[in-house]
Amino acid sequence: MPHLFIESGEGLPQWSNPISHAVVAGNLCFVSGQLSVNEAGNYVEGNVTDEAERAFNNVFAALKAAGFDKSHIAYIDIAFANLNDLNEVNALYMALFPEGQRPARTVYEAAKLPFNGKIKIVATAAK
Length: 127
What we know:
The chain is α+β, with helices and mostly antiparallel strands. The chain has helices at residues 48-65, 86-96; strands spanning 4-6, 22-25, 28-34, 73-80, 104-109, 119-126.
C-alpha cells in the first residue's frame, strides 16, 4: 500500500524544507515536527504558550489534510528550548486534550530548536 505524503494543505505553513508535514501509512499518520510557523512559512515569535498554540494548530492542520483529527492522536512528542516552560504549556495541553482524551506524551529539553524557537511538537495518530 503506497504512503500518502502531505506536503501542503489548508492552514499549513509553506515550507522551503525538503519534508512532508505528515505521512499516512495504513491507519497511521506521522506528523513532522511543527513549530510556530505561519502559513507564509515565517517563524512567529511569542511567549511559549503562543508558540505552542501555533505549533499545535499546525499539527491539527496536518492531520486534517491527511484525513485525521486530534481525536486520533495516540502520541505526542514535545521538545522545549527550556523545560521550565512545561507548566505553561501543560495548561494549554489540558485545554486541548480533556481528561480521558490525552495522548501518550514525551517531553524533553533540546539543545537548540529551529529558528531558535521555544517549542517543537511531533504527533502520531491512528484510526
